[in-house]
Design goal:
This protein is of the alpha/beta class. The chain is 37% helix and 23% strand. It contains 20 helices and 25 strands. It starts with a strand and ends in an 18-residue tail after the last helix. The structure holds 5-amino-5-deoxy-1-O-phosphono-D-mannitol (M6R).
């Protein structure tokens, strides 16, 4: 959820913090703030603003803050409304400690009571403020041992950054649950919630693990466990380029990320094939059951993955929302494999469900986009999508890359189990390698789809229908539209429509029917006829050259022909373009839709 950034070095800190906050804004955008060890006044200066980073930036324009050590924060409100007083950073009673925090302090009420009894006055309604006062209360002349004491008192999930007038040449980071990376520079170091925030300055990172505290100076980074013992950390080299965190001429990140898909699909194919871990496929060979757990768009990828893994690898698969899976009485034995899918690798629901399953004896696999993310580090095996940073809150390129990786996983497992032949495997790879060019072709229809967006953008509801592999794509189409345009939308298996949702259909309702020429085509056409008979406004996604379906539809978007099992990667693209343009034409904040955060690190 919230984004945190910190800097210590010789640069003027305010531009570094603002640059980082802009890169992190997708994690939360209710309010933002910075705290700087101000050279002139010898105080910690704190400035906050409700709203976006640009509001904070304007607010700081005529302030002359001079300093080279500071923290910044963009907030997604959990405790307390999005007001200035609740915005981070929060300072201690004396103003000598400033704190930024991402996560939730579950025992904050008890700590607050204790601190209030000692005379500490609270300004905000946040859980975070207790951390600032705790630092002041427990300070014993050494900020590291104070941080260890504070960490022992905090319950919940948190990533915390602290600066202090007591030891002005240090930034303290504490991590449990929420992510923190430390960017390593020469004569300068950085603290951030994730890598893109500081990619401009460094490619070398230390990723903190849960239960670690870091002491960061301009020339050193020392990491300790909660017993105060020094921990040796590996340096992770990241090859993402800075351009991937820029809009590159597109109006929104989402639009740019939609257009990156031919490359991200091709990169995911190449990356997957060059990093095959035979241990994973040995495990999959005699697995009794595979659970896929995920949230949102990643869950929809999992639903498609189920079809492929059952078809090609002949492994029974169950797909669950991670938040539901965690609290149900699932059956796990030593042959159970649990696959968590997550773009960020930080989604709390997915992480904690996977950790619980691991404790119960399951083998765990993560499919993530963010290198070094918590899910990747906590799982027995890791698979990656190779998309670079995805900044738009709506997942697009990572969805089609997840599909690609899941298909490849099913083919590799199927080949090793003998459930598909080497000839089929070769043929499938050949067909898959044609997909990036086919996606490129669909992207050429953007202007046509934009016209459709203009035509349908004032509808108050949408229905999305698909069958079999394209049913999850209908769910994904509805989710995309809802989250960025705020138009109500439902995704349904087309065959299920007659059992209820058909009652919604009237002459005002746009019904997006995903109807490629696959083995369900005839059945899909019957469902379209049912919609037509009730005067629904039919928009079809159909295979090039299908003129029959055009005559049934008010509008048709064509996609290139492919194998039945590959269609979902193609049919996903018009869903993304349509919802993107509807939201954009309606003037919505496409990259940062209301109430949402890109990375959801609370349950
Ligand atoms: O990072 P994750 O893939 O775990 O995120 C899961 C969902 O929060 C995410 O897919 C969300 O639904 C997106 N906003 C969808 O566009």
């Amino acid at each position: 959820m919230c984004g945190i950034i910190g800097y210590i070095g010789d640069r003027s800190v305010v531009p570094v913090l603002l640059y980082g906050l802009q890169r992190l804004e997708y994690r939360g955008y209710d309010s933002a703030g910075i705290s700087v060890l101000d050279k002139d006044s010898g105080r910690i200066v704190v400035e906050k603003k409700v709203g976006k980073i640009k509001d904070l930036q304007e607010h700081l324009w005529d302030k002359k803050i001079k300093g080279c050590v500071g923290l910044g924060h963009s907030r997604w409100a959990t405790h307390g409304e999005p007001t200035e007083v609740n915005a981070h950073p929060h300072t201690s009673h004396s103003g000598e400690f400033a704190v930024v925090h991402n996560g939730i302090i579950e025992n904050f009420a008890k700590l607050k009571e204790e601190l209030q009894a000692k005379g500490y006055q609270f300004k905000s309604d946040t859980d975070t403020e207790v951390i600032a006062h705790l630092f002041e209360d427990l300070y014993n002349g050494d900020i590291l041992s104070t941080a260890l004491e504070v960490a022992k008192r905090l319950e919940g999930a948190y990533a915390v950054g602290v600066i202090s007038l007591k030891e002005p040449d240090k930034i303290i980071a504490i991590k449990k649950g929420s992510p923190i990376v430390i960017g390593l520079g020469k004569g300068e170091n950085f603290l951030a919630s994730d890598i893109p925030a500081v990619l401009e300055y460094t490619r070398d990172f230390i990723i903190l693990d849960d239960g670690e505290v870091a002491v960061i100076t301009k020339d050193s980074v020392d990491v300790y466990n909660l017993n105060g013992e020094k921990v040796e950390k590996k340096v992770l080299k990241v090859d993402w380029d800075t351009a991937s965190a820029e809009k590159g001429g597109y109006k929104h990140f989402m639009q740019k990320e939609i257009h990156e898909q031919p490359k991200t699909i091709a990169d995911t194919i190449a990356g997957f094939l060059s990093s095959i871990d035979e241990g994973l496929f040995e495990t999959l060979k005699d697995t009794s059951r595979l659970y896929i757990i995920a949230c949102g768009t990643s869950y929809h990828a999992g639903l498609v993955g189920k079809f492929w893994i059952e078809k090609f690898a002949r492994i029974p698969v169950e797909v669950d929302y991670a938040s539901e899976y965690r609290y149900r009485d699932r059956v796990i034995d030593d042959k159970t494999v649990v696959l968590g899918i997550s773009q960020s690798g930080e989604t709390a629901d997915t992480r904690f469900a996977l950790l619980d399953a691991k404790k119960e004896g399951a083998k765990t696999v993560a499919l993530v986009n963010v290198v070094g993310s918590s899910l990747a580090r906590e799982s027995d095996y890791v698979l990656y999508t190779y998309c670079g940073p995805e900044i738009g809150v709506a997942a697009t390129k990572t969805f089609t890359a997840q599909l690609t990786a899941l298909l490849l996983l099913s083919l590799e497992a199927g080949l090793r189990k003998g459930s598909i032949s080497p000839q089929f495997y070769q043929e499938a790879h050949k067909r898959l390698s044609d997909i990036p060019a086919k996606v490129e072709k669909i992207l050429e229809s953007e202007d046509f789809i934009k016209d459709l967006a203009y035509k349908y953008m004032n509808a108050s509801d949408f229905l999305f229908l698909g069958r079999n592999l394209n049913y999850p794509i209908a769910l994904e189409g509805a989710l995309k539209l809802k989250e960025i345009s705020y138009i109500h939308a439902e995704g349904y298996p087309a065959g299920e429509m007659k059992h209820g949702p058909i009652a919604l259909i009237d002459e005002k309702l746009p019904v997006v029917c995903i109807a490629p020429r696959d083995r369900f085509y005839e059945k899909m056409v019957s469902n379209i006829q049912e919609v037509k008979a009730r005067k629904g406004r039919i928009i079809t996604v159909a295979t090039d050259g299908d003129s029959d379906i055009k005559s049934l539809s008010e509008d048709t978007v064509y996609i290139p022909e492919t194998e039945d099992y590959l269609y979902p990667i193609l049919t996903a693209i018009p869903m993304q373009i349509l919802s993107y343009h509807i939201a954009s034409l309606l003037g919505k904040d496409v990259d940062q839709p209301r109430n949402l955060a890109k990375t959801v690190t609370v349950e």
